[in-house]
Specification:
This protein has 292 residues and is of the alpha+beta class. Helix content is 27%, strand content 31%. It contains eight helices and 19 strands. An eight-stranded antiparallel β-sheet has the order 1-2-6-7-10-15-16-17, with helices on one face. Strands 18-9-8-19 form a four-stranded mixed β-sheet, with no helix packed on it. Helix 6 runs antiparallel to helix 7. The longest helix has 18 residues.
Length: 292
């Protein structure tokens, strides 16, 4: 396998293919990533989503409907805990555009986000300034877009964006990284023609107990769950479920969407879906690490 490694959207990417990707294909992939980032990154002052946060109005993007349809399902399943207007809540805790990491008082996200934000197949409209954060599933969506761009590449392909990955072809053995010790794994799973995405409180963490997985109803980081992994045919759905699993409604949503999963409590207990193919253990062996 040939590997192409690069940095984008604040994380490390690796694309593995049977033979090196030609330069036109690499350029096309880079353009897909830049277009998505330019539209949806709240960390860019020049992005369309940042403009939406300042001014309201419309953001034209075919990605709006798939992502916001999924967000609506996430909000319903988690009784409002997952909400794309959580951006201001994250900023209040210091996870802002400048990465100040200086926390202020927790800020709950507006519960009525679907009244403020509407969308169609061509874009999203905010009736008033509304800063969207698509972190619960956006990286997965981008992994899917990159895989689509590689549709004409022959044979096996692995797209890995900071541990959120999608595999086409023969299986990839993936270690489930221990959230408190990246040298260890809590299990291993074979991913074949599908996606594995993860979320963990040790990534994007700062301060005492501060991390990026918030309960939007309170603006406070979750305390019960330390990590979650989800297996699905596409990465956006896997990414979305990996977030939902931090809340009570996550397993039911995973069942409805046909997603297998593993999650770990902050005191080290593991749970998994009845049909999950992962082999679980305390300390594991080699494999590509899956952790958001």
């Amino acid at each position: 396998m040939a590997g192409w490694r690069f940095e984008a959207i604040g994380t490390h990417w690796e694309i593995e293919t049977s033979s090196p990707l030609p330069e036109p294909v690499r350029s096309a992939v880079s353009a897909v990533i830049e277009r998505f980032d330019r539209a949806w990154s709240r960390f860019r002052a020049d992005s369309e989503v940042s403009r939406l946060g300042r001014e309201g109005g419309t953001l034209a993007s075919a990605d709006a409907a798939p992502m916001l349809d999924a967000y609506r399902a996430l909000t319903t399943a988690t009784d409002g805990a997952v909400n794309p207007l959580v951006a201001d809540s994250l900023a209040a805790l210091g996870y802002d555009r400048e990465y100040s990491l200086v926390p202020r008082d927790p800020l709950a996200a507006p519960a009525d986000w679907t009244e403020r934000v509407s969308w169609t197949s061509t874009g999203v409209t905010a009736s008033a300034p509304a800063l969207l954060d698509v972190g619960a599933l956006g990286k997965g969506r981008l992994v899917d877009l990159v895989m689509t761009e590689l549709a004409e590449v022959p044979d096996d392909v692995v797209v890995d964006a900071g541990g959120d990955l999608r595999v086409r072809g023969s299986g990839e053995r993936v270690a489930l990284e221990h959230p408190y010790d990246p040298r260890k794994a809590v299990g291993v799973v074979e991913v074949r023609d599908g996606a594995l995405c993860a979320s963990a409180v040790n990534r994007r963490a700062w301060g005492d107990g501060l991390h990026h997985v918030l309960d939007a109803r309170t603006g406070v980081p979750v305390r019960t769950w330390a990590a979650a992994w989800a297996l699905a045919p596409d990465a956006m759905i896997a990414d979305a479920v990996a977030t939902a699993l931090f809340f009570d409604g996550g397993p039911a949503l995973a069942l409805a969407w046909g997603v297998e999963w593993v999650r770990m409590t902050t005191d080290g207990r593991l749970q998994c879906s009845p049909g999950c193919p992962a082999e679980l253990f305390t300390v594991g062996g080699p494999g590509r690490a899956a952790a958001d």
